[in-house]
């Protein structure tokens, strides 16, 4: 069994006025007031953490970076190891979003250590989940598969729906990437059900995107696009800038697989503008790859495509994205065969 989704990153008085589905304009306004009115370093740390998370999810990397560091310093002055763990988790998550994965691992590992030392179970779980997601994004499935399963077991044991969806989505993505589409679809569908029943709109939007991806691989383009439209509405309602950009990139993938290359280019360009606007290196590179492939299918000169693929391969190597590098190699082989 599990309860309604909640947002432990909104702490103290903020936790009573903000929910997991609060819009980020509301979070920013509430947290900014709390930061101005903070009567202690502990209150200031909690307000700055909420500011960091709202800015990160709105794609404002610089503001998010300033806020999580502010949260960490305030928590350190207050002698609050749990607050320091939460701030490091936020910083590590931002680093992963910006494509600096080695920094993400360092910050998240430090968050795990602080949380473990003070017995802050939720911060410990969130930081471990961040490490698991970082490894999964890099394609290091052997190292993180057991961690995903462990996190799912712990989430079930404590009835934490949001963590269940995170862990199960990660497992589903690994099944998808290794070719077990039946299992991936089963898990993503279960994620949608849990997120819906737990009133976790964010988790539902991400899970719908996963479902759409697998359905598209099976050739069910119309159903996939319908699910992406449903997820897009949630992203817009909650102002989930990053999730919306990845939704547009997935729309491009779905349209590309359906050989609707002109529409795919439009979707990839939309995603690319959004990713560049929020300094999201991983998303930017992935959208560029999709756009390069779609333009190639529309008749772009092979030499220009190969040049861009070489540039993207270097970028994926810099970020540490194993799966994306394999995609580049596969498309280069297709061009060579053609």
Automatic annotation (TrEMBL):
Report the Gene3D superfamilies cross-referenced here.
Answer: Tetratricopeptide repeat domain (1.25.40.10)
Transmembrane regions: none
Q: Where is the Anaphase-promoting complex subunit domain?
A: 46-88
Per its UniProt record, what SMART domains does this chain match? Answer: TPR
Q: Which InterPro entries does the record associate with it?
A: Apc5_dom, Bac_ResReg_Asp_Phosphatase, TPR-like_helical_dom_sf, TPR_rpt
Location in or out of the cell: Cytoplasm
Pfam families membership: ANAPC5 (PF12862), TPR_12 (PF13424)
Top-level lineage group: Bacteria
**UniProt keyword terms in alphabetical order:** Cytoplasm, Repeat, TPR repeat
- Give the record's family classification: Belongs to the Rap family.
The protein's name: Tetratricopeptide repeat protein
